[in-house]
Design a protein that fits this description.
Elements: E1 38-39, E2 43-50, E3 53-60, E4 72-73, E5 76-77
Antiparallel strand pairs: 1-2, 2-3, 4-5
């Protein structure tokens, strides 16, 4: 699904004559993380919880040797 962001998906409107709207979209490949829950220009992240088990996936658009991921449940590091 692509298009300009709307916090209300069915929020469509018509363009008036000579009216223009523009937005920028960025695309990059990701794989092996079973979907995306959040992303920006630097990385994409996914978190799936099924039957009490969490699966976390990350994809970065460049090397990040000092990156660290911590998964917490309330105050407990998992």
């Amino acid at each position: 699904m692509v298009g300009a962001y709307s916090d209300n998906q069915p929020d469509y409107s018509w363009l008036q004559p000579y009216e223009a709207r523009e937005w920028t979209q960025y695309w990059y490949p990701f794989r092996g993380i079973d979907g995306v829950k959040n992303a920006n220009l630097g990385a994409a992240v996914n978190l799936e919880v099924k039957n009490g088990n969490a699966t976390v996936g990350f994809y970065s658009t460049e090397e990040r040797p000092s990156a660290m991921v911590t998964l917490k449940l309330m105050d407990r590091v998992c």
